[in-house]
Amino acid sequence: MTTTFRRWLPWLLIPFLSGSALAAGFFHYADPLQDMRLAYDQNSRDSKAAYFQGYVSGIAESTRNTVWCPTTQAGKDDVTRQVSKYIRVHPDRTGKTSTEIIRSALAESFPCPEHHG
After folding, report:
1. Phi and psi, residue 64, nearest 5°
2. Nearest residue to 89 via CA among 71, 70, 67, 104
3. pLDDT tens for residues 2-30?
4. How confident is the model at residue 1 (pLDDT cuts 50, 70, 90)?
5. For residue 72, how many other CB atoms are within 10 A of its CB?
6. Residues whose CB falls within 8 Å of the CB of residue 9, separated by 6 or more in sequence, listed in order
7. Does domain 29-109 have CATH number 1.10.1060?
8. Percent of the chain whose pLDDT exceeds 90
9. Selection from 98, 104, 86 nearest residue 55 by Cα
10. In angstroms, rounded to a whole number, what is the distance separating the alpha carbons of residues 34 and 96?
């Protein structure tokens, strides 16, 4: 690596790293999640709507077939809409993290069949 590139590399990475840090900290509690959901529901092209959709997708992928079981026709947009609807219908989220809220929304919207055997 050239000296100039090494000097500029940290500055080039700041936007990428700060966005990830923002998303991680921003979604820990329910109130910011509500702000992001509102942006998503309004079809905003704001970064808040994108953060909401990305965060929901991340939780959904990490809990697929353990917390929730998708139907064959449930796509990413369907999942995000169901989570948004759940947050709207269940406004009392006292003491819950955004991850817990999303997991509850997924489990209620796309329940897994009980295994008997």
Report:
1. -60, 135
2. 104
3. 555 455 555 544 544 444 444 444 455 55
4. low
5. 4
6. 1
7. no
8. 36
9. 98
10. 13
pLDDT value, residue 17: 46
Polymer length of the chain: 117
The pTM for the full model equals 0.69
Return the amino acid letter for 72: T
* Cα–Cα dist 83/56, whole Å: 8
| Closest to 48 in 3D by CA, of 23, 14, 15, 28 | 23
DSSP labels for the chain? --HHHHHHHHHHHHHHHHHHHHHHHHTSBHHHHHHHHHHHHTT--SHHHHHHHHHHHHHHHHHBTTTB---TT--HHHHHHHHHHHHHH----TT-BHHHHHHHHHHHHSPPPPP--
